[in-house]
């Protein structure tokens, strides 16, 4: 049986390691990001945007999740999102530029990861966010 999540990721042009990991791999990566933000995100804005793009991919594939295993992963995602929301604060402007926000139809309510920043950014991220 073909996995619709992996098929979506492949069609979207994701690297093979992302496709292979499927929803489970995406959520594992998100868990790593949440842990990094918990300890103080010590990477650059590009890295952070890449990590938030990973959360966006999760949002896009969740509607395709249909197996009991997927449902368990989605439950785990809910817990991780709850933790992440305690670690971030609203950003003065979206992390991506306004064109990307409009093009993709992102909103602060639905795509909150693009409209918030870590409360404890590392020095590189803090400098880039202040520019």
- Separation of the first and last Cα atoms: 49 Å
- Quaternary state of this entry equals single chain
Mean pLDDT: 95
Q: Residue ranges: pLDDT <50 for 5 or more in a row?
A: none
Rg, Cα atoms, Å: 15 Å
Structural class, judged by helices and strands?
Answer: mainly alpha
Estimated share of beta-strand residues? under 5%
**How would the global form be characterised?**
globular
Q: Find the count of extended strands (DSSP E, 2+ residues).
A: 2
Question: How does this model look, in words?
Answer:
The chain is mostly helical. The protein has one domain. The chain has helices spanning 4-12, 16-39, 45-61, 68-87, 98-104, 123-130; strands at 88-90, 116-118. A two-stranded antiparallel ribbon has the order 1-2. Helix 1 crosses helix 2 (16-39), helix 2 (16-39) packs across helix 3 (45-61) and helix 2 (16-39) runs parallel beside helix 4 (68-87). The longest helix is centred in the N-terminal third of the chain and has 24 residues, at 16-39.
Short summary:
With 131 residues, this protein is mainly α. It is 65% helix and 5% strand. It has one domain (4-9, 20-130).
What keyword list fits this structure?
single chain; 131 residues; mainly alpha; two-stranded antiparallel sheet; 6 helices; 2 strands; globular
List the helices and strands and how they pair.
Elements: H1 4-12, H2 16-39, H3 45-61, H4 68-87, E1 88-90, H5 98-104, E2 116-118, H6 123-130
Antiparallel strand pairs: 1-2
Helix pairs in contact: 1-2, 2-3, 2-4
């Amino acid at each position: 049986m073909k996995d619709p999540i992996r098929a979506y990721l492949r069609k979207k042009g994701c690297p093979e390691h992302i496709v292979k990991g499927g929803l489970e791999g995406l959520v594992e990566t998100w868990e790593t990001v949440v842990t990094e933000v918990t300890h103080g995100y010590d990477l650059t804005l590009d890295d952070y945007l890449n990590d938030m793009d990973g959360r966006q991919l999760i949002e896009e594939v969740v509607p395709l999740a249909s197996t009991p295993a997927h449902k368990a992963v989605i439950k785990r995602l809910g817990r991780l999102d709850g933790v992440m929301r305690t670690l971030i604060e609203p950003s003065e402007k979206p992390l991506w530029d306004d064109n990307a926000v409009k093009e993709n139809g992102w909103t602060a309510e639905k795509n909150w990861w693009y409209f918030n920043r870590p409360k404890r950014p590392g020095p590189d991220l803090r400098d880039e966010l202040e520019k």
